[in-house]
Amino acid sequence: MTIYTRYMMKRFLTPLVFGLGLFAILIFLGDTFDKMNYIVKSKASLLTILECLWLGVPYWATRVIPMATLLATLVAMSGFVQSGEWLATQACGLETRRFWLPILWTSLAVSVLAFVAQETVMPAAWARSRRLWREKVHPEPEYSMYSDVAVAVDDKLFIRTILLRLKDGTMERPLLERVGAEGVYSQLDARAAAWDGAAKRWVFQSGVERTFTPEGVIEQPFQTKVSDLDASPADLIPRPINPDEMSLREVLSYSHRVGRFGGSPREYEVAAQSKIAYPFANLVICALGIPIALRLRKSSRVVSFCVALAVSFAYLWCMEVGRAMGVGGRLPPWAAAWMANAGFGVLAAALIHRWDL
Fold first, then answer.
1. Do strands 183-196 and 201-213 pair parallel, antiparallel, or not at all (unpaired)?
2. What is the domain range of residue 166?
3. E strands present in the chain
4. Residue 209, strand partner residues
5. I need a surface site. Which of 98, 108, 198, 243 has the fewest CB within 10 A?
6. Span 5-33, pLDDT tens digits
């Protein structure tokens, strides 16, 4: 690594850290103020509220990395030009491409770190934050009964019931299916089921157990059958799972599970592609910021900050449009997730090529 490369990396990383902290704090405060009405009325302890809010910081920090990257690119590049160092390096015979390549490589390293954080720290912290919010800070009222419940307990167990009563811990017309690689291989089809709190199991009543074999279906009637379903009544409440609370591997697994049980996995397929595309938006945004910084080389840092906000919001808008089109089925999941990166990447490549001529 040359002295020049280290110097440019330092010029880039200093405003990156500042911008990351600034944008994360602004969005965090905005989200906190938006929830303030619920927080002041909450019966949760102060420590629980602070834990809930603090665990949301990794999520917001990961979300604003592209904005911080663009701000850092604009500040580093424009500052280098305004100081006269750009002319000095050109006088020494340094190619224009050598001037901005260290910043681009550093943004790639930031993209890799953002992807690692998105797969490790962020999902666990965000899931814990949302759980504390739902259960302690702002508990949402639960219905006493749910009709037409269909829940995938895990990759191999699927439960459907006409009626789920939470207070009584009972189900009407439950159907418990065990799924293998070739589809459903056994069923428990009963008139009713009751939750046994001591055994932590559901007890099926007045039904039939079916086993599907290559030779045919084997049926065994029963009056009482203790199942291997150990999910409590509260765990069977149908709640959508936020992809932000899962890693890429978990989203892919859940998407496969939803598709296997007859649901539409498009939302999770798009989310899986987005989990790959979004961290590397830092590289695209950085590449776009290089020609913009050269264009605004005589502008102040306030102008750089405003440009960073405008371009970042335009990119986020394109990301959301692509995601909506992917979930709606108008675009394939990969195209929906990578649409913003592709569009802004082509624009960045064209502008950089123009400056290199």
1. antiparallel
2. 143-236
3. 145-154, 157-165, 170-172, 175-180, 183-196, 201-213, 216-226
4. 188, 220
5. 198
6. 787 788 888 888 888 888 888 888 888 88
Q: How many whole angstroms separate alpha carbon 243 and alpha carbon 254?
A: 9
Note every long-range contact of 206-211, with CB atoms under 8 Å and residues 24 or more positions apart, other chains counting: 210/186, 211/185, 211/186
246 inside domain: no
Instruction: Please give the helix or strand (H or E) that residue 275 lies within, else none.
Output: helix 266-277
Q: How many domains does the chain have?
A: 2
Sign of CA dihedral 322, 327, 330, 334: positive
302 inside domain: yes
Exposed e or buried b per residue across 305-330, where buried means at least 16 C-beta atoms within 10 angstroms of its C-beta: bebbeebbeebbebbeebbebbbeee
Taking the C-alpha atoms of residue 208 and residue 187, their distance in angstroms, rounded to an integer, is: 8
Instruction: Tell me, yes or no, whether 257 lies in a domain.
Output: no
Same domain? For 36 and 54 the reply is: yes
DSSP classification of residue 233: T
Query: Is residue 166 domain-resident?
Result: yes
